[in-house]
Amino acid sequence: MQSGLKDMSAYCFESYLGQIKSLLRSPNKLLAQYCRRIHEKELHCEQKNNDNMVEIREIIEDEDNEIKLHVQHLIIKKPVFKHPVDSSVLDIWGLKNEVREKITIVKLGEIKSKLIKFKINFSISDEERIFVMALLH
After folding, report:
1. Is 103 within 8 Å of 57 (Cβ atoms)?
2. How far apart are CA 86 and CA 89, in angstroms?
3. 93-121, pLDDT tens digit by residue?
4. Are 95 and 81 in contact (CB under 8 A)?
5. b vs e for 38-73, b when ≥16 Cβ sit within 10 Å of the residue's Cβ?
6. Residues 100 and 87 sit within 8 Å (Cβ to Cβ)
7. Over the stretch 14-30, which tens digit does the pLDDT of each residue have?
8. Is-contact 91 80, C-beta < 8 A?
9. Model pTM score
10. How far from 40 is each of 21, 22, 33, 67, CA to CA, in Å?
11. How far apart are CA 110 and CA 41, in angstroms?
12. What is the pLDDT of residues 68-84, one digit of tens each?
């Protein structure tokens, strides 16, 4: 069978071949390109944005008619998935089952986005897992 890599069709969700194809930029020197892209992935590091996720416990209005929130900070565990795109780009995170005890007060204007929280058991014997996802509005 004689055919080029461009002629093969495979969905990147279903096959490793799709991942390989996405790393190649031109039909010349395919193996060298692939090795360089893998090496670039290993060397490339990004500083993650250290945004805090909080759970609102109480909403209050002070004497100056300013809305403030009593919040507890959630502990981020990791992104839920890495392929086809890192879930942190979509603001989808897995959380630890614990929250920090300390309750802090923040102004309403400091809240960047709303999140929805899911608690899911995948099986009876499995412990409950917590996910959060940003609301797009």
Report:
1. yes
2. 6
3. 888 877 677 888 888 888 878 888 888 88
4. no
5. eeeeeeeeeeeeeeebbbeeeeeeeeeeeebbebee
6. no
7. 667 777 788 888 888 88
8. no
9. 0.53
10. 16, 14, 10, 47
11. 35
12. 888 888 887 788 888 88
The pair of structure tokens assigned to 88 is 């942190």
Amino acid letter, 137: H
What is the residue whose two structure tokens read 């502990």?
75
**What is the rounded CA–CA span in Å between residue 60 and residue 69?**
6
> How far apart (Å, rounded) are the C-alpha atoms in residues 73 and 101?
8
- Phi first, then psi: what are they for 56, rounded to 5°? -75, 130
Structure tokens at 12: 């990147």
Question: Which value, to the nearest 10 degrees, does the dihedral of the CA atoms of residues 112, 106, 133, 120 take?
Answer: 180
Q: Yes or no: say if 64 and 103 are a contact pair by the CB < 8 Å rule.
A: no
- For the record, the structure tokens of 70 come out as 């009593």
